[in-house]
Amino acid sequence: MEVQVAPLWPWNNFFPRHDSFTQLDLRDMPKWSHHVVNNPLYYQTNHVVLAASIVSVMGFLHPLNMLLGSAVVVFRKDNLPWVIFTTCMLHNICEAWGSSSMRPG
Question: Membrane-crossing residues (predicted)?
């Protein structure tokens, strides 16, 4: 299966002028949900380029904050399974022994 990358659309097409915006009718749910699902798919390459640009500029302006933020994200991601496992173990021990003084949460 070959993955196809969406094309990079021109800025005027990706971010139209104010007069191009229309208010969607929330009572017409099929049309609204179609728009919400297809718009990010249609412009996914533009969204990735825009996000990468913002992260790059912020990394250039505040390199220490970006490094600290990245370290926190990596630390949280790596330790989340351990925290969940430990909390479940403590909960099971408290349930088995009937202790309400050690009950987490």
Answer: 48-75
